[in-house]
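Hi support team,

I'm opening this ticket because the web form for multi-chain structure prediction keeps timing out on my end. I have pasted the exact lines I submitted so you can reproduce it. The total is 554 residues across two entries, so I didn't expect it to be a heavy job. Is there a limit I'm missing, or should I split the entries? Thanks in advance, R.K.
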Amino acid sequence: MDLNSIYTQLIMEHNKSGHNKRPLDSPDIIERGHNPSCGDDITLQLKISDKIIEDAAFEGVGCAISQASTSMMIDLIKGKDIEEALSLVETFIGMIKKEITSDEELEKLEDSIVLQNIANMPARVKCAVLAWHTLKEALGYN
Amino acid sequence: MHKLNPDEIKNDFPILSQNINGNRLAYLDNGATTQKPIQVIEAIYNYNTRSHGNPHRGAHQLSIRATEEYDSAKERVRKFINAKTIEEIVFTRNTTESLNLIAQSYGREFIKENDEIVLAISEHHSNILPWQRIAKEKKAILKYMYLNDDGRIEPEEIKNKITGKTKIVSIAHMSNVLGTIHPLEEIIEYAHKMGALVIVDGAQSTPHIKVDVQILDADFYVFSGHKMLAPMGIGVLYGKKEILESMPPYLMGGDMIEYVYEDYATFAPLPYKFEAGTQNVEGAVGLKAAIDYLERIGMDKIEDHEKALAEYALDKMFSIPYVNVQGPKDLDMRGGIISFTVDDAHPHDVSTILDSYGVAIRAGHHCAQPLMRYLNLPATSRVSFYLYNTKEDIDQFVEGLKNVRKWLGYGS
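Hello R.K., no limit was hit. The queue was backed up. Here is the completed structure from your submission:
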């Protein structure tokens, strides 16, 4: 296992920057997601109008992988409509399950594509997918 | 007295000689499970190639041999913890099953409304959940002894929580998170004075320090084989004979009966009353071989060796400014388990990064969420030592530890 492929600069920047880690003013949806076995615990907040995710942010604690993955997801889904966001969730989960491998498909994930190598680390998969499952839950699809 | 030689001991453990991620393996997750020496592996092999049969059931040679192996393993355990008779030694799957057995059998029979059950806040979930269930069912009251800033239970806390209403005190000998060795003598003496029974979870202590159940005077003492060089799936419940005799069976089934009629049955004498169904004979054989191995080395030497390792590791860890060690600072109050956090790094990242250096540690809540909440920590990392660990293992761990923050993009 190569640590460089896991703790990439981009992941570390997202983990540290915290630009998406803030409370939203009167969010429309608040959804908590956690991994009881390791203590990753995030609360996703969404502002939605006309089926468009106008703003999104999160609060909580967790490992670098879970925090970076959440932050990257928020960058990706902001401004997207709900259906598109859900389709991106499926693409991300497909990538982590190694079911989706085509570059063309994966490019849609933008920054989040750097989490691809987590697929090779069974112990950390749940950290990477936490935010994405939480989003699905938040939008009422689970 | 000569010290034990961990390098020599390591040669008995085939699994430890491999490389992990291109580095020598430093296995420091002994609190979770321990590795097996070739002597244990061979004992199980010999049993399976010579003596395997269903014990206590047949008149044929293999059944007789299996019976002898099983019963001699029980005698070996009795001697190891100095119980009075083998009637006091019940084999279970593990510590968890032993604790559930006590709660379901003793607890369900004898706990009444408003009785109090006292635990320490540092207990493993397996010593909390069985009591939560009984407390709920019987409308009994669950109380916790809390720890001071050094991770220890103060004498006043013992007297505050254990009262005339207390029926059961159930506490770990050594905390699986903090490494704290609890003041069992004081707790047991005071609990007995108040008329309460004491159950000791010995999962983290029995493998590492000499246990004498008669000197300790615990009413129950339970532990797991796999944390002391034996296979998974074999555990021990020690109970004082007169208490075990007063308890109803836990599981019903084969081998635990005397006579069975259409609508009632009488039960086998101790310890078989609590051993329904075919038992884990090869696990028992492995446990016997593990005890032989440990006692050949000497429990005193093992304890001294682990204390020396803990001192060596703690010295190095205290000198790293961004590493925060949890639990007692005083070596006399703790065993070879050290929980810690690293500033700005989540324990799971610490564990993943150390794994790339060949260092196996545990990260998470260690099945002790109430303690984590009490300490206000989401999780910790944990190293735990055993007889085969060396200073070299600790050096390798500390070297990896010093690199954790760099990998996560922090200076150092």
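A quick check on our side: The helical segments of chain A are 3-6, 9-17, 64-77, 82-96, 103-107, 125-138. Let us know if the file doesn't open in your viewer.
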